[in-house]
């Protein structure tokens, strides 16, 4: 695994790259990709950072694991590659966007269009073995991505953090709520959404209201 990450992030994450846990993580990931089919492709592992540079971050969405089916994961949480059918959680995200801000349901599930507007689409674990959900958890990725969240919290102001579901809500402890905005709801997965914990959260319009109130450009969802 080459740490191919945009230069804007390096000053904030240098201590992580130099840390022994990260060296062990790199060894683990390289071995996994050599011996097994893993996702996303090696050159897309750090896409969240390469599509959304540190200085441009306005919104952070936190996912858990990459998709573990063929051709799905592209290094951005909840996102899939062009022409790939939309997973259930992404369908529910797009349905809420349509209801909330009136943007028609899109053909493409590739969320790089959000990332390029300043939305960091961060999975807590950046890699996974094919067809084995959570197979790369607790190998060091969470230490790294927690450091990413904390560095954003420490170094920036008025970032909107969208924490969907129990796992993401646990990350609130890393965020200084006195200078950032935290919006929480149920997860967009069918299990949560169909119980009434997702639809109607209006997170997309609320995010844009918060950005406007802080003189930042809004996101075209």
Describe what you observe in this structure.
This protein is of the alpha/beta class. 37% of the residues lie in helices and 11% in strands. The protein is built from nine helices and six strands. The strands form two sheets. A four-stranded parallel β-sheet has the order 3-2-5-6. Strands 1-4 form a two-stranded antiparallel ribbon. The longest helix has 16 residues. The model has no long low-confidence stretch (mean pLDDT 97).
List key phrases describing it.
single chain, 221 residues, alpha/beta, 4-stranded parallel β-sheet, two-stranded antiparallel sheet, 37% helix
In short:
With 221 residues, this protein is α/β, with parallel strands linked by helices.
Task: Pick out the low-confidence regions.
Answer: none
Structural class given helices, strands, pairing? alpha/beta
User: What integer value in Å does the Rg equal?
Assistant: 17 Å
Question: So what's the overall shape?
Answer: globular
> Helical amount among residues, as a percent range?
25-40%
- Amount of beta strand: 5-15%
Order of helices and strands: HHEHEHHEEHEHEHH
Give the SSE layout:
Blueprint: H1 10-17, H2 20-35, E1 38-39, H3 47-51, E2 59-63, H4 88-101, H5 112-115, E3 119-123, E4 128-129, H6 141-155, E5 160-164, H7 165-169, E6 181-185, H8 190-193, H9 203-213
Parallel strand pairs: 2-3, 2-5, 5-6
Antiparallel strand pairs: 1-4
């Amino acid at each position: 695994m080459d740490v191919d990450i945009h230069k804007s992030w390096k000053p904030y994450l240098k201590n992580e790259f130099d840390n022994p846990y990260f060296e062990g993580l790199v060894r683990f990931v390289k071995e996994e990709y050599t011996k097994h089919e893993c996702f996303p492709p090696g050159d897309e592992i750090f896409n969240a950072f390469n599509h959304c540079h540190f200085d441009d971050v306005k919104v952070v969405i936190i996912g858990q694991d990459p998709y573990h089916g063929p051709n799905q994961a592209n290094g951005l949480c909840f996102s899939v590659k062009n022409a790939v059918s939309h997973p259930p959680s992404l369908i529910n995200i797009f349905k809420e966007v349509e209801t909330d801000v009136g943007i028609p349901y899109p053909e493409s599930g590739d969320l790089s269009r959000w990332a390029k507007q300043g939305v960091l689409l961060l999975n807590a674990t950046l890699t996974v073995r094919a067809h084995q959900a959570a197979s790369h958890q607790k190998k060091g990725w969470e230490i790294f991505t927690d450091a990413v969240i904390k560095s954003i919290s420490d170094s920036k102001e008025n970032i909107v953090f969208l924490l969907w579901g129990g796992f993401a809500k646990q990350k609130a402890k890393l965020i200084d709520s006195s200078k950032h905005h935290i919006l929480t709801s149920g997860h967009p997965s069918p299990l949560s959404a169909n119980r009434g914990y997702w639809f109607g959260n209006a997170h997309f319009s609320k995010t844009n209201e918060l950005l406007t109130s802080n003189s930042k450009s809004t996101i075209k969802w």
